[in-house]
Specification:
Chain lengths: ~180, ~500
């Protein structure tokens, strides 16, 4: 789910940037530092939409760097337990498959896959195939899934999901 | 409570015993600490009850290149059994391949890269057996082993291929791209240094949790596969850049053993693409793998689960030196136990029996390095082969008993006789023969020309003379070529 939220961030700036372009530099630096970052509370920061306030810079005595408190609004993506999302399959293995929702990789284990779908290791690329042969899950398939749990670790956000419920599973691509 | 409990209602007709039993989730599969069965954060709950000491977990990672996933050994076995069953119905075995020194040789030596870049445009950088790629800011030049393509094509329908290398993940993936541009052979069955950090050993436990009865390994080193020696088909290390150019730089893992190469040529580097190689190991292995596959599925039946490739492999090896009785001379130091010596063990592995004393009734071969008492004794006895040590080496590396006469060792001479039956030599000889045939035809043609010239054209004698001298010159050249070819032949013999 996406949210538009107010956030703040301390930006450190080198003295060489102290000049007429100061605000411009701060905006650039903010974007490059926060976009794509992931926090436990807000999830992934997708993009900075506006800067609402730039505080007064404080210069550190020893280094000459100035620190500015920047308040900004950003679009964030945070996933919740039981949320239904559409995702693209990125990798298929014998114990489940991965699907990505933007920056988030969700793992769907074999326990989250309906029992009538079996792993077919010999096909290229490897895939899950339904008994009646009319549904397959391979790389680049679009699936609708339900997020079952998320976990935040130092190196990223991890989530597990399931397609073992009504109206979940591969989404048929409309024939044009 | 975030755990799911399994409830089992017992049969109430039974008077004794509990009415129902509760069983907590075993958390047998975890992804970054989240249980995949009950969605509980297992790591966190473990941290909460520190005093609650769980039994040593038997979790393994199981899947290639999948960080954060842990599965209980027993659970993994169940999945693996199912996959093995599918493989069996498809009549496939598993084959684990090492990369460096087995399938190919890589170098990051700047001299080769420079020479290679000079010759090839950037648009079409890879050609034939040579491939170049950039990894972590370094160029790597890869030379594939001769006949590798035929090998992969030959075994891919009979074996499920895995890569097991001590190179880095990125390196392994680059190589996989070269070997398998269509992603048909390996998919993601690649084990690299990241998954197997111990550089001195390789293990199948993580990826073949059930059993290793259907797994064969091809590697140039036997020391890393300590507990899986029975599955291993060891082949001669492939050291292209070192053998032919004396380059010592190693890209990845340490080379097998530093063995003094008899073919050390130290050619000029810019000629590296024109080396005429004599390496038939891939062909030898292909045939062997096909043989074992055929035997396996001849004997295999659904009911008989205990069939083991290890025994087939060992039988296949045993055939090589079957019915031979070897006596070593000058090869095993006196102060060591002969049964422990590698050469002894090797001979036994390939089906020979070995002796320590000369017994004219039993001994069939005397294997030696040079003249010795035993050699003299054996030469005096008819019916005993006296062969150089290289006979044993070549027989075991080609998985075929070599012709003893080509390795014959006389009393005086201790030079290694080069076998004409040695496949590589035979091939080289064939090309020499071809060249000589061509020369012969050429000479015959020149003679014909000369006859034609002397028969007609009488009016201009001067020009005739000129022509004749010319053709004589040509003849002379041909003679020289012939001599050269003869010399070559002698060298080869």
């Amino acid at each position: 789910m996406f949210f538009h939220v107010q956030l703040e961030k301390n930006i450190r700036l080198h003295p060489r940037n102290f000049g007429p372009q100061l605000h411009q530099t701060l905006k650039q630096k903010l974007s490059s530092e926060v976009e794509g970052q992931c926090t436990g509370r807000y999830g992934y920061i997708i993009t900075v939409t506006s800067i609402s306030h730039i505080g007064q810079g404080k210069i550190a005595e020893s280094s000459g760097y100035a620190t500015f408190l920047v308040k900004y609004r950003a679009i964030v993506m945070r996933t919740f337990k039981s949320e239904i999302v559409d995702a693209v399959v990125t990798r298929v293995t014998k114990i489940g498959f991965f699907a990505s929702v933007g920056p988030l990789e969700i793992f769907i284990s074999r326990h989250g896959i309906p029992t009538d779908m079996t792993f077919d290791p010999d096909s290229s690329p490897p895939r899950y195939i339904a008994e009646d042969q009319n549904a397959t899950i391979a790389q680049d398939t679009e699936v609708r899934l339900k997020i079952m749990g998320t976990k935040i670790e130092a190196n990223g956000l991890f989530a597990i999901g399931t397609i073992k419920e009504d109206y979940l599973g591969p989404i048929a691509i409309e024939q044009l | 409570m975030d755990q799911i409990y399994q409830t089992t209602l017992n049969n109430f007709t039974q008077r004794d015993g509990p009415a129902c039993s509760l069983k907590g989730c075993t958390h047998s599969e975890k992804f970054h600490g989240i249980c995949l069965l009950c969605e509980a954060d297992v790591d966190a709950s473990l941290n909460l009850k520190k005093n609650h000491i769980e039994k040593e977990s038997s979790d393994i990672s199981y899947v290639h290149n999948f960080r954060g996933f842990k599965i209980d050994l027993e659970e993994a076995k169940k999945i693996e059994q199912e996959l093995q069953r599918i493989l069996m119905t498809k009549k496939k075995l598993s084959l684990v391949l090492d990369l460096d020194h087995t399938l190919l040789h890589a170098t990051d030596d700047q001299r080769f890269i420079h020479a290679y870049n000079l010759k090839h445009t950037l648009n079409k950088p890879n050609s034939g057996d040579f491939h170049i790629f950039r990894l972590d800011g370094h160029y790597h030049l890869v030379k594939l082993r001769p006949h590798l393509d035929a090998f992969l094509k030959g075994v891919k329908d009979k074996y499920e291929l895995h890569i097991f290398t001590h190179g880095s993940r990125g390196y392994a993936e680059q190589i996989a791209k070269i070997l398998d541009p269509d992603q048909n052979l390996f998919h993601d069955r690649i084990v690299s240094r990241e998954e197997c950090p111990d550089i001195n050993s390789k293990t199948l436990k993580e990826h073949f949790p059930c059993h290793d009865r259907t797994v064969l390994i091809i590697d140039d080193r036997s020391d890393v596969w300590q507990s899986y020696i029975g599955n291993l088909i060891q082949i001669v290390p492939y050291d292209f850049f070192r053998t032919y150019f004396g380059v010592e730089s190693e890209v990845n893992n340490a080379a097998g053993k530093t063995h003094a190469s008899r073919f050390m040529l130290n050619k000029p580097i810019h000629e590296f693409e024109n080396v005429n190689e004599r390496d038939e190991q891939m062909t030898v292995v292909t045939n062997m793998l096909k043989r074992i596959h055929e035997q396996f599925f001849d004997l295999h039946s659904a009911a008989d689960d205990e069939l083991d490739v290890k025994s087939l492999l060992s039988q296949d090896k045993h055939k090589v030196l079957k019915n031979t009785h070897l006596l070593f001379s000058g090869l095993i130091p006196l102060n060591t136990s002969p049964h422990e010596h590698p050469i002894w063990k090797k001979a036994i592995e390939f089906g020979a029996t070995c002796a320590t004393e000369f017994d004219a009734d039993k001994v069939t071969h005397v294997v030696a390095n040079g003249p010795s008492q035993k050699v003299k004794l054996a030469n005096a006895t008819p019916g005993i082969y006296v062969v150089h040590k290289s006979w044993l080496d070549d027989s075991t590396s080609h998985y075929m008993r070599m012709n003893e006469f080509d390795y014959k060792l006389s009393d005086k001479c201790n030079k290694v006789p080069f076998s004409v039956n040695h496949p590589a030599v035979a091939r080289s000889l064939r090309s020499v023969h071809d060249a000589m045939n061509e020369l012969n035809q050429h000479i015959r043609g020149a003679h014909q020309d000369m006859k034609d010239l002397t028969r007609d054209d009488v009016d201009s004698e001067e020009s005739d003379e000129e022509d004749q001298s010319e053709s004589e010159e040509e003849d002379h050249d041909d003679q020289e070529d012939q001599d050269l070819a003869d010399d070559l032949m002698k060298d080869m013999m």
